[in-house]
Amino acid sequence: MRISFDLDGVLYDFHKSFYDFFVNFFGEKLDYQKFWTTLDALYSKFLLHNLLKIPIFYSNQFPKIKDLEVVNELDRKGYDIFYITSSPFEVELTRRNWLKRFNFPQYENLICSNDKLIPIIKYEIDFHIDDQLINLYRVRNFTNPILFEQPWNIAGRKDFICIKNLNELKAILEGENCGREILERNVRVSTRQYANAIK
Question: What average pLDDT does the chain have?
Answer without folding.
Answer: 86
